[in-house]
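Notes from the 1:1 (GR / supervisor)

We went over the backlog. Supervisor wanted to see one worked example end to end before approving the batch request, so GR pasted a single chain during the call. The sequence is below; no edits were made to it. Supervisor asked that the structure be written out right there so they could see what the output format looks like.
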Amino acid sequence: MPKIRCFYEDCIFLDEGYCTAAAVEIDPDQGCLTYKPVGEFLDEEDEWLEGEEAFLDEVEEELWDEDEDEEM
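Structure output shown during the call:
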């Protein structure tokens, strides 16, 4: 497998200056279409975590409500 040297410094696929993506698409005018900035990836992860935290808060709230109902 050929190694692709990459000059993007903030791509999630970058490992010691080489691309680790399974497939790479390069456009002559736009450059690497596989490029994904680390900041963009982290934003998506943060959004997922916020949604997950909200879900867990709801479940925890329901559990507390059930406990209070059982005690009465």
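Supervisor's comment: The first helix runs from residue 38 to 71.
Batch request approved.
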